[in-house]
Fold this protein.
Amino acid sequence: MTKYRFWAGALVGLMAACAAPHSALAQSPAPTPPSALDARTEAQKSAFLAMPEADRKAVQDALGWLGLYNGAVDGAFGKRTRDSILAYQSSVKATADGVISEPQLAALKAVAQKARAAVGFELIDERTSGVRIGAPLKILDKIAMIGDAVTLEKAGGSVTLAFPYRTGANADLAALYAKLTADEKGRKISYKAMKADDFFVVAGELAGRKFYTRFAKAPADWPGGPSLRGFTFSYPSDEAADLDKLALAVANSFEPFSSSAASLDAAAARATSSLTWRDIVKVAPANAPADSAVKTPPSAPELTATGLIVAPGQTLTAIAAADCANPTVDGKAAKTLRADALSGLTLLAGDFGAGAAPPKLGAGSAELVVLSIEPGATPGTAALEASAATPTPAGDGRQAIVAALTKAASGAPVFDRKGALEALVAPITGEAKRVAGVALAEPHALIALDAIERFLGQGSAEAPAQGPDLGAGEIAREKRASVVSIVCRP
């Protein structure tokens, strides 16, 4: 707890240095006698601490997204939390009593969810460094390898989130802190703090850009040996009004050394040359328990394709039936019901997908997400991956997308941002082109909806429900049970 409290204090100091105070917080209430003030504060504290910890953190998180709170999301009650609650209540013209009511809690949670959805804020595992952190994936929609550090960035590089790390003899926290805080022409350090042999934070401006860097040192008993893991969030100074809030959200989500498999197995991930960018940056499993150890499963046949469950016991995919005599769907034996050599579609049947309903069909969209089951770094493992895709002419009259996909994405469903099916990825025959082990985005042919409807013998489904656009992570969670792995066994 001491370690976390120190970091909380550093975060408060950092954000105070980086962000201008909100006008609502600057308003001074009328003078109140000290005894009455103390009693009121104690009553507010008692009411706040009586809430479940998850709700207390949700309040702080939402107030941060509103720009009213710039501290750690720790569920503790202090002046910063109290003043932020009062500022929020005043902003919505509610009684400013410092006590969050049930309707206000619900409203705050809705505000935070809307703010996260607007920028695609998702908890991700960055495999090469081992860091788990929140990232705005609608803003940071590109990936680059700068040296040995993975960097998520906005197109053009105006906003970046980098994941540097140090191992072995290079894992010297004090030396790195000295380097990053040394005088450099044009660099202005606005905040710096260090806890010896634990972590440091450095924030400031350089060349018209704000930056926010944190590094943490591995625990003494860390199985991977000595290492430092960190991140740097950088953005234009003139966009600070919006992006300071994101910097706070990113900082509050930072887990440098978690017990997840991705965190424990970072060295193995770095040693695997076949990693794609979807392997490197993965949306963290929702509510999944952390793994206590990394287990190596036995070898298994290579993942062949991805399928979409379209009815109970039926999976649609895009493979050549002649090349897949003994298919399995998510490890369960399946048989081929029928196949169409012209489109490449194949319908498999087996004991899976109980209760599945036909997918809702889209009507054409320029913002697409491909959900595919991709092989993991360890043989025999696979995971659902959500990949952004852009429509492009195929040149032969067929529909196509530009996306970074592997052969295993053959048959993968393509959804619009409402979660409606737009197409399936046609069979991919060649291996993905890679740079530094990262698959490049390339054109891939699609199997259009009309061909799918003809093959399944069904008319257009009912129009999808209207609603806000979904982030890639939200679509992945919603469709997870319907997207399956197809393996062709000898």
